[in-house]
């Protein structure tokens, strides 16, 4: 979690920023926020603490314009400027200072943008970015701009080297590639990359010198997310990169929402079935499925209410994750859960599943002002089925037998 310094002499602006920083999207990344009213306070705080980011007013009452930002940058703090006005001389001054970006203070939305910019920069901190360009000077310029946005920059001298790096390092989420490169040009690189990494996994920004209006369209058609023409303004570069990576993050959020159960945060039935079918197609002899059902769960809802029932399901989900963290655990529906394991020996999985009931007996779940001893019935189906759905069906039959034989037990097909 990050520590942020905000240097601002307006009480109203400070109040607005304090409120926005309490929002969930900001609290996820920012742990400590220190406010300074003037240059002197900022200097004292910088001597006391190490900061990840600074949001700095361009003009303060006790220093010359830009001095506060110069101070934070001298302390190696990535800095975003707040300014109430902007002309070309001020813009050049900020670029020379080496700030990440600037925000013009003209309405409440500008402060929201500033806080979102801070969180986006912190989210990107240390994220690997690949720059592919045969010009060492161009690579250095791009590297410097990207490092201001807190990225970890990796360099490639040509398309072939870039492709090899991307195949080896799947953690890279952004590629900036020049068009004119030896061995493999930008179009060929984008086309080759898209054969194994889609737009929702890796963002690509194509770059080329001015003079060919068709390059941008070709880059996009081959699979790039965006395009920049050299020479470009620093602000344009920062905005394009931030927006491209943010779009990638939003896609990840949408996918996560589609794959997760809203109540427990576990994977949902859809994810389990899709992943199970893919896994089964690769190695059907190593797929083991267990279905788990909470015994007498209706009694909890009837006695304590549905809110307590939801709490019980969340606690049960946590207990399952605790004992089965190396496997995929999903909420299958209602009070039923599923486990998907990739293993050639199901004996260890059986023991882990049996430990769940031991845990529930030793540590009852908490409901309202009391505790409740919950148990589960488990049906296990291991391997040797013609498809994944047949494996699920076998686990369901085994679960039915566990219920019929007295509950609180595991039955293997």
Indicate the topology.
Layout: E1 2-7, H1 11-20, H2 24-27, E2 30-36, H3 39-48, E3 53-57, H4 67-74, E4 78-83, H5 88-97, E5 101-104, H6 108-124, E6 128-132, H7 136-148, E7 152-156, H8 159-168, E8 174-178, H9 186-193, E9 203-209, H10 215-222, E10 226-230, H11 234-259, E11 267-268, H12 269-283, E12 287-294, H13 297-304, H14 306-323, E13 328-333, E14 336-342, H15 347-362, E15 365-367, E16 370-372, E17 376-382, H16 388-404, E18 410-412
Parallel strand pairs: 1-2, 1-3, 3-4, 4-5, 6-7, 6-8, 8-9, 9-10, 11-13, 17-18
Antiparallel strand pairs: 12-14, 12-17, 13-14, 15-16
Helix pairs in contact: 1-6, 3-4, 8-9, 13-14, 14-15
Domain GGDEF: 285-413
Cofactor: Mg(2+)
Domain Response regulatory: 3-120, 128-245
Description of the molecule:
The chain has 413 residues and is an alpha/beta fold. The chain has three domains: 2-123, Response regulator (Rossmann fold, 3-Layer(aba) Sandwich); 126-259, Response regulator (Rossmann fold); 267-412, 2-Layer Sandwich (Alpha-Beta Plaits). It contains 16 helices and 18 strands. It has helices at residues 11-20, 24-27, 39-48, 67-74, 88-97, 108-124, 136-148, 159-168, 186-193, 215-222, 234-259, 269-283, 297-304, 306-323, 347-362, 388-404, and strands at 2-7, 30-36, 53-57, 78-83, 101-104, 128-132, 152-156, 174-178, 203-209, 226-230, 267-268, 287-294, 328-333, 336-342, 365-367, 370-372, 376-382, 410-412. The strands form four sheets. Strands 11-13-14-12-17-18 form a six-stranded mixed sheet, with helices on both faces. Helix 9 links the parallel strand 8 (174-178) and strand 9 (203-209). The chain is flat, with a radius of gyration of 28 Å. The mean pLDDT is 90.
């Amino acid at each position: 979690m990050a520590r942020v310094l905000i240097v601002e002499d307006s009480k109203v602006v400070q109040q607005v920023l304090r409120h926005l920083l309490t929002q969930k999207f900001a609290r996820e990344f920012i742990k400590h926020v220190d406010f300074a009213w003037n240059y002197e306070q900022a200097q004292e705080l910088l001597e006391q603490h190490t900061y990840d980011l600074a949001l700095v007013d361009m003009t303060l009452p006790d220093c010359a314009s830009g001095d506060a930002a110069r101070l934070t940058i001298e302390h190696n703090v990535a800095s975003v400027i707040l300014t109430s006005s902007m002309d070309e001389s001020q813009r050049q001054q900020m670029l020379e200072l080496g700030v990440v970006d600037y925000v013009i203070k003209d309405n409440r939305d500008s402060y929201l943008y500033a806080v979102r910019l801070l969180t986006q920069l912190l989210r990107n901190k240390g994220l690997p970015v690949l720059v592919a360009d045969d010009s060492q000077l161009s690579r250095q310029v791009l590297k410097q701009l990207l490092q201001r946005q807190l990225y970890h920059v990796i360099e490639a001298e040509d398309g072939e080297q870039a492709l090899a790096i991307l195949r080896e390092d799947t953690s890279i989420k952004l590629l900036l590639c020049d068009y004119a490169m030896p061995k493999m040009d930008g179009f060929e690189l984008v086309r080759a990359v898209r054969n194994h990494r889609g737009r929702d996994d890796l963002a690509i920004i194509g770059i080329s010198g001015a003079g060919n209006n068709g390059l941008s369209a070709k880059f996009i058609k081959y699979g790039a997310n965006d395009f920049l023409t050299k020479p470009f303004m620093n602000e344009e570069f920062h905005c394009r990169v931030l927006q491209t990576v943010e779009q990638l993050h939003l896609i990840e959020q949408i996918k996560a929402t589609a794959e997760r159960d809203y109540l427990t945060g576990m994977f949902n039935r859809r994810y389990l079935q899709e992943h199970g079918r893919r896994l089964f197609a690769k190695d059907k002899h190593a797929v083991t499925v267990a279905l788990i059902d909470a015994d007498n769960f209706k009694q909890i809802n009837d006695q304590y209410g549905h809110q307590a029932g939801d709490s019980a399901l969340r606690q049960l989900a946590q207990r399952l994750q605790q004992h089965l963290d190396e496997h995929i655990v999903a909420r299958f529906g209602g009070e039923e859960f599923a486990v998907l394991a990739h293993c050639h020996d199901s004996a260890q999985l059986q023991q882990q599943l049996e430990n769940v009931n031991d845990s529930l007996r030793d540590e009852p779940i908490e409901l309202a002002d009391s505790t409740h001893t919950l148990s589960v019935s488990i049906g296990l189906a291991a391997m040797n089925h013609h498809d994944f759905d047949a494996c699920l069906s076998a686990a369901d039959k085994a679960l039915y037998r566990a219920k019929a034989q007295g509950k609180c037990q595991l039955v293997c097909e």
